[in-house]
Amino acid sequence: MKGKLLMPALILAAGAVSAQQIPEKSPMPMKPEMTEVWEPEIPVITPGEKYGDAPSDAVVLFNGTNLEAEWTNDKGETPGWKVENGIVTVVRGTGIIKTKRKFQDFQLHIEWRTPAEVSGNSQGRGNSGVFMQERYELQILDSYNNRTYRNGQAGSIYKQHPPLVNACKGPGVWQTYDVIYTAPRFKEDGTYFTPPRITVLQNGVLIQNNVVLRGPTEYIGIPEYSVKPHGPGSIVLQDHGNPTSFRNIWIREL
Ligand code: MG
After folding, report:
1. Which of 55, 69, 144, 160 would you label with 120, given CA atoms 20 to 30 Å apart?
2. Cα of 157 to ligand 1 centre, how many Å?
3. Cβ neighbours of 222 (radius 10 Å)
4. Domain coverage including residue 224
5. CA of 24 relative to ligand 1 center, distance in Å
6. 189 Cβ contact partners less than 8 Å away, ≥ 6 residues apart
7. What distance in Å separates the CA atoms of residue 151 and residue 33, rounded to the nearest whole number?
8. Average pLDDT over residues 178-197
9. 85 and 181 part of one domain
């Protein structure tokens, strides 16, 4: 770039040639290696053996046992959810669970299953949710043959962005979310300098394409643009009263 800018300046200063005579290409002969960047070398990681397996640089948040290693309930105590046969299931009334670690920007993999026995309808069927930084909900719901409001069905950023498609599998079938989340940055007055952004794949299908969030998830009312600044936050899983299950949860900080 420098060479390209320098050349016209020199020519014009000298007044020797007209603008039409400025060569289109840099007079400096370019070689392929002049635009190659070698350092620092890209970090080497080992990908999972098959889709869904944690790569070597992931933090495993739940691998089927020992939920309390990485999770607490809302009070910071041992979570009340049931761990059995490598999966963890919501126990109604015990409240949310949240990661002990707090995160900023990340890639998250989580597998979930709504109850095989279908009961309830609309928001009352297999409802749970994944909250980014304790504030921004990616809805979990049995949205297989179960109409509800479009910005509240599975894969929605609750009450803000409906999913692009309904990629749900049936009740009792394991499903995946792969989330890429960019945390907000704040101005001094507490408003977003850059708002949160989120991309989600459900069962390998893109359902949220780098959407911008207005503010923290609200059940009633408009999400506020002006919120209190917050730093890194936990991943929170919702107890909405339905026995939805989870397995194989891992995260990569970005
Ligand atoms: Mg929910």
Report:
1. 160
2. 10
3. 10
4. 59-253
5. 59
6. 226
7. 50
8. 95
9. yes
